[in-house]
Inverse folding.
């Protein structure tokens, strides 16, 4: 029993032997540290808990490292197609679906941010709030804009789950590569838009951040945090799609488009009327 337990533990968490295993272990560490970073402010507010126990709580997500490593290894193995898997030549490649998904996420982000700013301006929240508390209207406007962008970011992270499901359905192979390319496209396009529309503000931000080593590190982490979060949330969508066995739905939809309405109806009735096994 002890030998079997040791073998199981080694299968869940061991030194990576291939590039795919190294990527899986890196993703597992990223998720664990991301969760630990996310709960740190919440745990800090638990003042009734002794400080050393709060430290244990902050490090608790690391306990999920073996499980996450196994899950990511399985996802990578399935994304590579596996031996004997069907060749989905009728579906687009990973860089095509990744680019389309990234562009859609960028459009959704700016649309959500525009709606937030428009709603605040339409309601007159800026002037009303500033007049009520005696604050600087420009500062209030900046705060409302930041809140709108934060809300747009949250909505984009939720949309990334749907994007992951769609990529799993419609990507020929290399789903994780499509997720990574989508995240890179999202970061690159948003950065290009920031350079085009707010070059002075961006330059000031970079100069202030580069003044110290800590500021430079914070700027790099800030730039990478959103695309990494999008990759993780899209990975959740892929995992949900895998559990729901949706991998073949993209090909089914492509095939259904070639049928007439009557043929679709007959095929649907034939499948639904099949007896359920067991």
């Amino acid at each position: 029993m002890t030998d079997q337990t040791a073998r199981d533990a080694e299968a869940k968490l061991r030194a990576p032997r291939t590039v795919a295993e190294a990527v899986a272990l890196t993703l597992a560490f990223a998720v664990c540290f991301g969760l630990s970073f996310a709960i740190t402010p919440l745990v800090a507010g638990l003042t009734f808990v002794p400080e050393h126990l709060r430290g244990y709580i902050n490090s608790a997500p690391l306990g999920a490292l073996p499980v996450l490593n196994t899950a990511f290894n399985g996802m990578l193995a399935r994304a590579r197609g596996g031996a004997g898997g069907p060749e989905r030549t009728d579906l687009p490649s990973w860089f095509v679906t990744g680019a389309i998904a990234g562009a859609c996420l960028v459009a959704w982000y700016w649309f959500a941010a525009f709606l937030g700013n428009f709603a605040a301006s339409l309601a007159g929240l800026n002037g009303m709030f500033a007049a009520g508390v005696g604050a600087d209207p420009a500062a209030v406007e900046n705060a409302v804009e930041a809140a709108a962008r934060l809300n747009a970011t949250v909505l984009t992270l939720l949309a990334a789950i749907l994007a992951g499901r769609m990529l799993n359905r419609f990507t020929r192979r290399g789903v994780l590569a499509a997720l990574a390319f989508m995240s890179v496209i999202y970061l690159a396009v948003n950065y290009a838009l920031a350079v085009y529309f707010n070059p002075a503000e961006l330059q000031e931000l970079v100069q202030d951040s580069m003044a110290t080593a800590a500021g430079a590190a914070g700027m790099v982490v800030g730039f990478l945090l959103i695309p990494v979060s999008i990759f993780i949330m899209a990975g959740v969508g892929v995992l949900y799609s895998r559990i729901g066995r949706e991998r073949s739905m993209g090909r089914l939809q492509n095939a259904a488009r070639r049928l007439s309405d009557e043929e679709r109806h007959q095929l649907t009735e034939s499948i639904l009327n099949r007896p359920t096994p067991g």
